[in-house]
Sequence to fold (116 residues):
Amino acid sequence: MDRIIAQVPALEGRVYDRATEGTSFPSCTLGPSYWTDASVECVTARQMTLQIDIWHSQANKGVVEDLVDDVTAALAGWSDPVRITMRPLVISLVRVLDEPGDRVHGVVQVEALLEG
Fold:
């Protein structure tokens, strides 16, 4: 979340674990996540997948496409070895979707191998 806030100023700091009713647009939330065991004989590890959701109230997909590109650029290849032993993030999926209620939804899915 800190990386997106710092690297994507167009979101104006609206990056949340979970949005609430009345959250201003554009905004970004952490979506579903899952992991699979990637341990080997002497190293405990997991392959983690996280979906990042970008929301906007306009029917103009171009704004969300730009935000999705900015979030992708901020996260592709990023790692934080000071906090956790991890391989650099890999972008595995990027989508822009129409949603009911004249909203547009961007999705950036990232994967990382975490050791620990």
Notes: The longest helix spans residues 61-75.
